[in-house]
Amino acid sequence: MVHEITVPKHRQQVIDIGDGLCMRWSTSADAENVAELVGDAFRFSSFGEKPDDELPGKHVPLMCCVRRLLSGHSLAMSEYDYALVENTLAAPGENPIIACAALHEIPSYYGCVMMNFGKPEQIACHRNYRNRGLVRRLMKEMIHPESEYRGHVIQFIPGIDYFYRQFGYEYALSSPDGREMSDLDSNIPKLEDGEQERYKLREAILDDVPYLTRLSANKETLFLHKTAVGTVYDERYWRHFVHDIYQPPHISWYDKSRTVTIIRDEKKGRDIGFNQHVYMNGLGWQKFALEEGVAIRDVIYPVMRQMVVLAKKQAKACHEYEMSKKEEEKEEKEGKNTAIEGEHSTLCESESPPEITTITFELSQEHPALEFLSSKFDPTPDEPDAMLYTRINDYAAFITKVAPALEERLARSRTFAGISATLQLHFFKKVEGMNAPGLQVVFENGKVVKAQDWKKPTPEQNVEAVCKRKVAKLPEPKVFQAQFYPLMFTQLLMGSRSARELIWANSDNAVQDSESRLLLDVLFPKVEHDIDLLIW
């Protein structure tokens, strides 16, 4: 069972870091100050066109997101889970929060093992305080220790190129960019005159949560059968997106950008599946699941037609929300005579809502809808999937946690089922969280009995060990060995690359022999990932 988010007493601590600055954990009272900081820090990440000669407005969607996260009504975190740097000497009217990093807790799975992944999020620092190591301190002294305190053996984050490598992250989880279909008027067949939709969408409500939970509990239904690492779509997940996110105290249009609908067969009078899409400066199709025996070819176009209609309504609502905010900020500027020009959101600048001309398919790569519609997709560049930063602070702890999944893989193997042996992995240097530059895993009868930090012996030590075994007339132990450039083993653990691919990618990576490589392929096969990035 995935545990609930708790608020340990030790997080009442305030850390004095000098110059009037202190680090502490948040409360709901910090919501507006943190929102202001995040909105300002992400100005240049705002949607829409940005004039070259004008400072972009604050990132309104992220500001709304922060308010939701700190409201105490978020699926991912509590109002106490933002690590903050506060300027205790801030002048009256000045935002005292100058740096921040949230810690999310995401119910997830690795093979058959259920666990919570940690996810640092919404990290920001005021421009006047950058390059002073504040984010580094938040990550190393607050976010990571708290994540590990909760038992997270893995953290992941989408983020600035290269930046998070300094905190022990490696690109190891994939997040497909999605295929795009434009020219929707031509690519989605229209109803004949007088024809009615047989399969209709209705917005999901709280009473539908058990149905959504049941249908998504089977990975085959979402065509995630090749997926070995991913997000758990449990009752809490669906309750959040069909009910909780719409509740006060903080409601904005952006809290409603993701829509879950039930698909109903009007002819048979029964529900036959569900659909999930998001509108945020464009239409993204996230999930499409049908009951067994329902043909996708019959349902797909009715769902697409109605989904586009809903997205157009959302685009209009988004536009009206943006325009109202723009007007409020204009009036506020005129009242305060602010010196900064262009202080408004840039999501919707035109006088009319944006048109829905494209669908981005974020469905599983194995989903038959992609194959059914393959001839209608826009040409795409030959590029790899986007990768997410991934941190495994303690390889031995991770192996111990996921041991049931590894043992299940061994049991299915005709080569290594029931094996008793030792796997030794050398990483050249100690990395954060390890006491030695390597890892040793001991198997007995196909079970993981020990995982521990390990140091590669010298040639002299190897000779001495052999001599001792001969004197004692002990049998030669079965040992498999490999070596990987620091942190690249994380890619193998997550199944984003095979051992062979890692060997080809870097000459420092190597295996002792073909049998060692085969064992690594069995334990850590290349797999699909299904990570929901925006559980806000």
From TrEMBL:
It comes from the Eukaryota. InterPro entries: Acyl_CoA_acyltransferase. Residues 323-346 have a biased composition (Basic and acidic residues). SUPFAM superfamilies: Acyl-CoA N-acyltransferases (Nat) (SSF55729). Residues 323-352 are annotated as: Disordered. This is N-acetyltransferase domain-containing protein. It comes from Podila minutissima. The lineage of its organism: Eukaryota, Fungi, Fungi incertae sedis, Mucoromycota, Mortierellomycotina.
